[in-house]
Specification:
By secondary structure, this protein is mainly α. It has five helices and two strands.
């Protein structure tokens, strides 16, 4: 890719990354669509896989949409974070850095939900959101490697 095209591409990715962050914060903290009307007291779950197990066990009694959102939505929602992270930072990002940034961003959201009482601090969300960031990073990494090979053969 030419240098000028690369700069434009990175600028577009940075704008997309910022818009993505704004959307995630809105949907995970403020959106009424996800029941963010607030609680009277702070709520939390510190038992890993407890909510995941609950959604699997009671999937017949809960709406399919709720099951999907809780089991897969948390992962899918953070895939773009991992994909755009490298270009937003404007430097090479390692797997461990992507893991750390995904974890820190997720923790910031969960802590915000806990403090504002607009959600539940849930260790399962931290696990799944971080996993989504890592999946996104892996998609970016494999795609970039394939594109480099393709352009090298040309």
């Amino acid at each position: 890719m030419k240098q000028i095209d690369r700069k434009k591409f990175r600028a577009i990715c940075l704008v997309l990354f910022v818009l993505y962050i704004i959307c995630i914060v809105y949907f995970l903290i403020f959106s009424d669509m996800f029941g963010r009307s607030g609680y009277d007291e702070r709520r939390y779950n510190l038992h890993p896989f407890q909510e995941i197990e609950r959604f699997i066990i009671y999937r017949d009694q809960i709406s399919g949409w709720s099951v999907f959102l809780n089991l897969y939505g948390n992962i899918i929602a953070f895939v773009p974070f991992g994909m755009l992270l490298r270009w937003a930072r404007n430097k090479n990002t390692t797997f461990w850095q992507a893991l750390l940034y995904s974890l820190m961003f997720t923790l910031a959201i969960e802590i915000s939900q806990y403090i504002t009482k607009l959600g539940v601090f849930d260790i399962d969300d931290i696990i799944m959101n971080t996993l989504g960031g890592i999946v996104g990073y892996c998609i970016y990494y494999v795609t970039a490697k394939l594109l480099r090979r393709y352009h090298a053969k040309k």
